[in-house]
Design brief:
Length: 108
């Protein structure tokens, strides 16, 4: 995607890319630039770092244990906590953490 250097709007292609006279044109101002060669750039975006919304490792201290099957290792016991993350008329969300592999999952 190319943007207009004058008004910062998205530039459109005037003509076909295979024709020698195609150009980028701005739909809001008179900017026009001829396309001289094909160009392809790929930018790999970084993954976002995710904050632990449950409060980190300290949130799992002093929580209860229940029978729940871990979807990762199939272990039969997990720690759990209930948190109200939606409006008050919605049920609480139950978060689990596997006792064996520490995988976390949610049941709403």
């Amino acid at each position: 995607m190319w943007f207009c250097p004058i008004c910062a709007n998205l530039l459109m292609v005037d003509g076909t890319l295979s024709s020698p006279s195609s150009s980028f044109v701005c739909s809001t101002c008179p900017f026009k630039k001829s396309i001289t060669s094909k160009r392809r750039n790929r930018i790999k975006l970084k993954n976002k770092t995710v904050d632990d919304v449950l409060g980190g490792a300290g949130a799992w201290e002093n929580v209860d244990k229940t029978e729940a099957v871990c979807p990762e290792c199939q272990h039969g016991e997990a720690f759990f906590m209930q948190i109200q993350i939606r409006s008050a008329d919605e049920p609480m969300s139950v978060f689990y953490k596997c006792e064996k592999c520490s995988h976390q999952w949610c049941h709403r």
